[in-house]
Design brief:
It is a single chain. 47% of the residues lie in helices and 12% in strands. With 179 residues, the chain is an alpha/beta fold. It has a domain of 117 residues. The protein has a 6-stranded mixed sheet, sandwiched between helices. Helix 4 links the parallel strand 3 and strand 4. Helix 5 crosses helix 6 and helix 5 packs across helix 8. It is globular. The relative contact order is 0.23.
Length: 179
């Protein structure tokens, strides 16, 4: 078993920072004109998506709702679709599993703990300026329970794809993101 597959199947995601790509070369070469970026809220999907959309002259679609994502996946344009909701749809609906599993993707590996804290900060709850003392707890708990469950479900299916090119993906270092 290769090291990445072993990692995906055996490690927890509480503190994991491993990001992987699946069949990224198919998007880079133009063989497939869709790229999915999937990760928990606060993991850096939008920032990475903007960077890659510019690099590959692609449209960027965020998962604001299922209709938007569906249009992004089904249109004929070279498109990057980013969002946590993709994992939710994959987890909950066979037709979405069929649409998603064969697309090149980047699975963001920012830990549930770090992502929860970043999402909380982005959405306006900053240490020392807490709007609601439950906010930080909510984001961290949501990232460590729901999101990790749906991402693990997707990750386990990804490693079963025959002939998949699964590699660790090094997220470029970006300038600080200000929300």
């Amino acid at each position: 078993m290769d090291p990445i597959t072993k990692y995906l199947l055996n490690e927890g995601y509480l503190l994991s920072d491993k990001t992987i790509s699946v069949n990224l070369k198919d998007f880079e070469s133009g063989k497939n004109n869709k790229l999915l970026i999937i990760g928990s809220p606060g993991s850096g999907k939008t920032t990475l998506g903007k960077h890659l959309a510019k690099k590959y002259s692609s449209e960027l679609v965020s998962d604001t709702d299922w209709k938007t994502m569906s249009r992004g996946i089904l249109n004929s344009k070279r498109t990057i679709i980013e969002g946590a909701g993709l994992a939710d749809l994959y987890y909950g609906d066979q037709s979405w599993r069929d649409m998603i599993i064969d697309k090149p993707m980047i699975l963001m590996g920012l830990s549930g703990l770090k992502a929860g804290l970043r999402a909380d900060k982005r959405d306006g709850t900053v240490p020392g300026k807490v709007k609601d003392k439950k906010d930080t707890y909510y984001f961290v708990r949501k990232n460590l329970s729901h999101w990790q469950k749906v991402f693990n479900y997707l990750r386990k299916d990804v490693v079963k794809i025959p002939g998949a090119d699964i590699k660790e993906f090094k997220v470029p270092k970006f300038a600080p993101v200000y929300y």
